[in-house]
Every structure is written in structure tokens, then in C-alpha cells.
Amino acid sequence: MPRRLEPFVVEKPWGRTDISRAFGDFGERAIGEIWFTDPDGRASQILVKFLFTSERLSIQVHPDGDAAKGVGLPSGKDECWLVLAADPGAELGVGLKRSADRSDLRDAALDGSIAELIDWRTAAVNDFIYNPAGTIHAMGAGLTVVEIQQNINCTYRLYDYGRTRALHLDEGLAVARLEPGPDPRDCRVDPRSDQRLVDGPHFHVLHLTGPIDRSAISAAAGEFIFVPLSSGCYAAGEALHLGDAVVIEDPALIDIAGGARALLTWPA
């Protein structure tokens, strides 16, 4: 049977007070993130989050598998974003605009000019971005994003706009990619069409629409996380909505009504 994941709500100084009531009623709390955790305490290889931004987030980078294992972690951290809402002028920072060496990046991180080296892209609803480990990245203000990532809590902050949190320049610069280069998985998602967004190497992500095409999921195998992006989504007959996430072992248990949409993700 499906297993509902529990939302873990995180307040952030850069969070929002106007997020959709589908996620809950948080009053005037500035909600920055909602993580989904297993109530049974089981560790998943994948973590699903929703993020809500009113300011720019830190400029950061994650290690790949080799670097992560060098510091005692079981894996690196690739992640991807699907934009669900974007205010006018909202931006995503993905990689560098030009090549740089580590010494230049260190100087830029210390004086704040690293923000000018980031490839800031105008963000729009249904933009999909894949950030391989090593990609220097950041989110701008005015966004609601669903993020799927390898479930490793390892973030190296390079610049934080004067906030008081610690930076990790040595660790971050050691794993950072120094050349620009968009990922070939970056795309615009058609909200009315099924689309395979990620096909490894660490996880899979499908964008699914209703009425569901069973052939789109017939070859999938593993333990899945089903993430509704609208009402009209079902798992074993139970209605689900935006703000829910469930674990299922058989994708045949899911259903999606016409006009509804969801993400399905599982480990590679």
C-alpha cells in the first residue's frame, strides 16, 4: 500500500509568507522549504523538497560521489528543479558565465563579485534544470520550485549575501566545476504531456499527465515517490493533492485524471 511521507516545514529568512494554502496554513511564518520524510524512519536515496523564495539563496555547490566518499558520505549530490511559480524577473543561477580558476573564484567569493560570475537565467513556470554535482548554483527571489535530489545533507556555501552562516570555501572550490556548460537535460516541460526528465545516473524523474499512459511507466522498477503537482492524482484510490508525497512499490497503483499532473521519481 502507498506510504504517505510526512512534510517537514523549515522556516528561512529568505522564505515566503504567501505560499499556497495547499501546503498548509502557516500564518505569517516565512516558509522556505518543505521536505518529505518517511514516518517509519526509513532512509531513501532520494529527497523531495518544495522551496519558496523571497530573497536570493546562497551561492553553493555539492560534491560528486568521489569527493563525498572522501569525507565519509555514501554518495554525492545531484539535484534538479522544476519551477512551479515565478514572479516577474525571477532568476535561477546555474553554473558560471565564463571559465575561472580557483584563485579567482576564491577572491570573488570573498568580495561578493562571485554573484556577477553566475549564469543567471530568467525563470519561468515549467522550466526544468538539472544541477550535476560540482555545478555552482543559486536560486533568486520570487520562486516556488519542486526539487528532487540525492538524499545527502552536504552543501558547501561559497557566498551568502552577508548572512551570518558559515562558508565552506576550501571544500566548495575543491569540487566546483570551473567551466560554463548547460546540462543537456535542461528543458521546458509541457504541462500537458508525459516527459522523461531524468534517466540516471543517480535517479529517474518522469513528468506524468492524465489520463495516465500506462506504457510510460510499464518498465519502471523500484521504490517510487509519487509527487502530485495538482489535484486529480490518486494512489491506490486515495486522492492526493499538491503538497502531498507518497511512496509506492508498484506504479500500477497510481492514477491521474485528465488535466492533472505529477512527478514520479525512483533510484537508478
Explain what this protein looks like in three dimensions.
By secondary structure, the protein is mainly beta. It has two domains: 186 residues, Jelly Rolls (Sandwich); 73 residues, Jelly Rolls. Helices cover 10% and strands 40% of the residues. It has a seven-stranded antiparallel sheet, with no helix packed on it.
Quick overview of this protein structure:
The chain has about 270 residues and is mainly beta. It has four helices and 21 strands.
List the helices and strands and how they pair.
Elements: E1 3-4, E2 6-16, E3 31-37, E4 46-53, E5 59-61, H1 65-70, E6 79-86, E7 91-96, H2 102-111, H3 114-117, E8 118-122, E9 127-131, E10 137-139, E11 143-150, E12 156-159, H4 169-175, E13 187-188, E14 195-199, E15 203-209, E16 224-228, E17 233-235, E18 238-240, E19 246-248, E20 254-256, E21 261-267
Mean pLDDT: 95
**What's the order of the H and E elements?**
EEEEEHEEHHEEEEEHEEEEEEEEE
Distance from N terminus to C terminus (CA atoms, Å) equals 22 Å
Major β-sheet profile: 7 strands, antiparallel
CATH topology annotation of the largest domain:
Jelly Rolls
pLDDT < 50 runs, ≥5 residues:
none
Order of strands across the main sheet: 2-3-4-11-6-9-13
Helix proportion range = 10-25%
Can you tell me the CATH superfamily of the largest domain?
A: Jelly Rolls
Number of helices: 4
What form results from the Cα inertia axes? globular
